[in-house]
Design goal:
The complex is a heterodimer.
Chain A (H helix, E strand, L loop, with lengths): L4 H8 L4 H9 L6 H15 L2 H16 L2 H20 L1 H39 L1 H13 L3 H9 E12 L5 E6 L8 H19 L9 E4 L2 E7 L3 E9 L4 H16 L1 H5 L12 H5 L4 E3 L10 H36 L3 E8 L4 E7 L6 H7 L7 E7 L5 H12 L5 E6 L2 E9 H11 L7 E4 L2 E3 L2 H7 L2 E2 L12 H15 L2 E9 L5 H23 L8 E11 L4 E8 L3
Parallel strand pairs in A: 8-9, 11-12, 11-13, 15-16
Antiparallel strand pairs in A: 1-2, 1-5, 1-6, 3-4, 4-5, 7-8, 10-11, 14-17, 15-17
Helix pairs in contact in A: 5-6, 6-7, 7-8, 17-18, 18-19
Chain B lengths: L1 E9 L5 H8 L7 H5 L2 E10 L2 E10 L10 H4 L4 E7 L4 H17 L4 E6 L11 H8 L4 E2 L8 H12 L1
Parallel strand pairs in B: 1-3, 1-4, 4-5, 5-6
Antiparallel strand pairs in B: 2-3
Classes of the chains: A alpha+beta, B alpha/beta.
Chain lengths: ~550, ~160
């Protein structure tokens, strides 16, 4: 960069302190040439002209090429290093506002990468595709990771070797995986030897070179310039366009380091400036997942399998829900005790105890969606001690008349209401036989039944006579007949008996007379009773001999 | 760090590969000798507080059936010429190889090693022949015992830097 002619003319007319200074120390003389040198020095060092054009010049240079950047890079790096060494706090303070966001961004990116990696791991581990790849890895003896990479990777430039063409010495090496940098210099030398070997062995012309070679899934592409070899180790199937990137890179290196390459004596540090260019060559492209049609065979099959699976799971879930409901209902149903159950694939079984008076199991089955064929039922009879069932059993056995109420508590069957004394008597007698009943307690009002009362009555006579043993006995019967007469029309057969003493004729006569006497006394008692006509008294002398000398009664409704 | 390409040369069976094996831990298989004619090894030595990486190009030995590929010599900063003390014919082969080297790459630092010095009873070369070829500083080596092996490589490294 030099000042323009105009600038030179303007500034040359002005005296300069530096110029005077130069004159004093005698190093610059007062000749015309010395004056110009002084002027130039003044422009470069003391004038503000340079400072006014420098920013613009730097800007234009940066837009034009990266030479200025590359030239100043070592200086800037050295300045930063020196600044940190002298006083780290200055740079730390300057970077402080950006460190926080940078860390957050880095953590976010790392988390995102981890989640993506986790998703990929899941996909590759449990998906059909992942299983298929595992099978392939097992079959081919490759690692699973290698198979995944080969299947998903379109290409990846793994390493770039920048080699001095004449010596085969490694100038620079960049790698995607830092572990690959080991022995790069020997690989570089052997690569050169191989290219030389190929050239010497198969050359078709003097400038013929080895362009590429391939080993399994790895390709090595080689680009040559007059002084440099750029070798790229590429995994996958790289596109031809990638060569343009390599060509551009090697041309740039050749151009930038032309002098250094010509004078190369084995010192490679200077070529570190070429690393950014080489790192741009580490291209990577993942294979795009081929979008299959929505109704691809695999998806259809997966859909069918999923549907069948869903139906099966749904059926068993529904059945489980119904089965649980049935068991719950049986447990809650009075009169049932569930002792065993088994849930089969298609039929189930239930076993237990059942009170004969409990509700039928078919209702329970139907309520839960089962047919009787779906569940095998096996019940053994038992008597439920629950009060409801005790009362049901009592009602069935005792058949209480209307107006009688049964209740049960703590083993006591309480009978309350109105019934005949006979019924109460039977209730007491048979009630205690009912399962669960320890005692029958009758608290109801006993209603006298005239028929049974009459028929239970036995009028005693003194043997051999027509004289009552108890004169009031006939009167009580007469009262019952009077009650009976109010209830309807009845025939009352009055049968007299004689004991075994005496002759047959006497006995027949006396038994007949005893019946007549009782009949007459009853009629006498009923005289004046307007209902007396409802009762017809029939006297019979029994020929049968009895132990006692008695008269008995038998009541029969007249309409029967 | 400075890198230097050094070629190991000599007739077949003079012990070049054994000398290299004594000097370095090889990475590549020796089958490369018979396939592409060269095998490369590396050794880092220190010369005057400076690390020098010696890239050793161990070339297949020359015989009637195989001639050294000139392209492998290109760019070499030095070379080691190995002669078998037990075979006088290997000295003649070394002379031819040296002429070829100078023709290909010009004058560069080199060392001439008279190898298999451990086989005392079988030595065919007398001292005068050696001095005539290599000058007063004749270096006798033994890949088997390691005699003078490190010294040979280190001396060459000093000559090159």
């Amino acid at each position: 960069m030099k000042p323009s002619a105009d600038t030179s003319q303007e500034t040359s007319a002005e005296p300069n302190a530096n110029e005077d200074s130069d004159r004093k120390d005698g190093s610059v003389h007062n000749s015309n040439g010395d004056s110009k040198i002084g002027e130039l020095r003044r422009i470069l060092i003391g004038s503000e002209e340079v400072s006014s054009v420098l920013p613009e010049a730097v800007s234009k240079s940066s837009q034009k090429s990266t030479e200025l950047t590359e030239a100043t890079l070592p200086i800037v790096e050295e300045n930063i290093r020196e600044s940190v060494l002298r006083n780290p706090k200055v740079l730390a303070d300057a970077l402080f506002p950006v460190i926080g966001p940078a860390i957050r961004k880095a953590i976010s990116a790392a988390l995102s990468s981890m989640v993506q990696s986790f998703n990929q791991t899941l996909e590759y581990s449990v998906s059909p595709k992942g299983l298929r790849w595992r099978l392939e890895a097992f079959r081919t003896g490759r690692s699973f990771g290698e198979v995944v990479m080969l299947k998903t990777l379109r290409y990846s430039v793994e390493q770039i070797f920048l080699i001095h063409r004449e010596t085969g010495l490694l100038l620079q090496h960049v790698a995607r995986n830092p572990q690959d940098t080991e022995d790069a210099d020997m690989v570089s030398a052997m690569l050169t030897a191989i290219t030389d070997f190929a050239h010497d062995s198969f050359k078709t012309s003097e400038d013929a070179t080895l362009d590429s070679f391939k080993i399994s899934g790895l390709s090595v592409w080689i680009e040559n310039s007059p002084d440099v070899i750029l070798a790229a180790a590429i995994r996958g199937n790289p596109p031809l366009e990638l060569r343009e990137i390599f060509t551009t890179a090697i041309e740039k290196v050749q151009f930038t380091f032309e002098r250094e390459l010509e004078e190369f004596e084995g010192e490679s540090e200077i070529f570190a400036r070429a690393r950014p260019e080489l790192e741009r060559c580490l291209q990577f492209q993942a294979m795009e997942e081929k979008e299959a049609g929505f109704f691809s065979p695999a998806r259809l099959m997966l859909g069918v399998v999923s549907l069948v699976l869903l139906l099966v799971v749904g059926y068993f879930a529904l059945d489980y829900w119904r089965w649980s409901g049935l068991l719950e209902d049986i447990r809650e149903e009075p009169g049932y005790v569930l002792t065993d159950y088994q849930r089969g694939w298609f039929t189930h079984s239930v076993a237990g105890l059942k009170d004969p008076l409990a509700n039928g199991a078919s209702t329970l089955l139907a309520n839960n969606g089962y047919d009787e064929d779906d569940v095998a039922l096996s019940w053994r009879e038992y008597h439920d001690s629950n009060s409801d069932f005790v009362i049901r059993r009592a009602q069935k056995l005792l058949a209480p008349p209307d107006g009688v109420k049964l209740s049960y508590q703590n083993g006591i069957l309480a009978v309350d209401g109105k019934a005949t004394s006979d019924w109460f008597s039977n209730a007491k007698r048979f009630g205690s036989m009912i399962s669960g009943v320890e005692e029958v307690r009758v608290t109801g009002e006993s209603q006298n039944d005239p028929i049974s009362s009459i028929e239970r009555s036995r009028i005693q006579f003194k043997c051999g006579t027509l004289e009552y043993r108890d004169a009031s006995a006939t009167k009580e019967v007469a009262e019952e007949v009077a009650k009976l007469a109010t209830a309807g029309r009845f025939d009352i057969r009055i049968t007299g008996f004689a004991d075994r003493t005496g002759t047959e004729g006497v006995n027949r006569e006396i038994s007949s007379n005893r019946a007549k006497r009782v009949s007459q006394d009853i009629q006498t008692s009923l005289s004046g009773n307007e209902n007396a006509k409802n009762v017809k008294l029939i006297e019979i002398g029994s020929e049968t001999l009895a132990e006692d000398c008695v008269v008995t009664f038998k009541v029969t409704p007249q309409d029967q | 760090m400075i890198q230097k390409k050094i070629c190991m040369l000599g007739a077949t069976g003079v012990g070049k590969t054994s000398l290299v094996r004594q000097f370095v831990q090889s990475v590549f298989s020796e089958k490369y000798h018979s396939t592409i004619g060269v095998k490369v090894d590396k050794k880092v030595v220190r010369v005057d507080n400076q690390e020098v990486t010696m890239m050793l190009w161990d070339l297949q030995g020359e015989d009637d059936d195989f001639k050294i590929k000139a392209s492998f010599l290109r760019g070499a900063s030095g070379y080691i010429l190995v002669v078998d003390l037990t075979r006088a014919a290997s000295l003649e082969a070394a002379k031819r190889i040296q002429l070829m080297i100078e023709d290909e790459i010009g004058q560069v630092p080199f060392m001439i090693l008279f190898n298999k010095n451990d086989l005392v009873d079988e030595i065919e070369l007398d001292h005068e022949w050696m001095v005539e070829f290599a000058g007063e500083r004749v270096l006798r080596t033994s890949a088997k015992t390691g005699e003078n092996v490190d010294e040979a490589f280190n001396t060459l490294a000093k000559k090159m830097v």
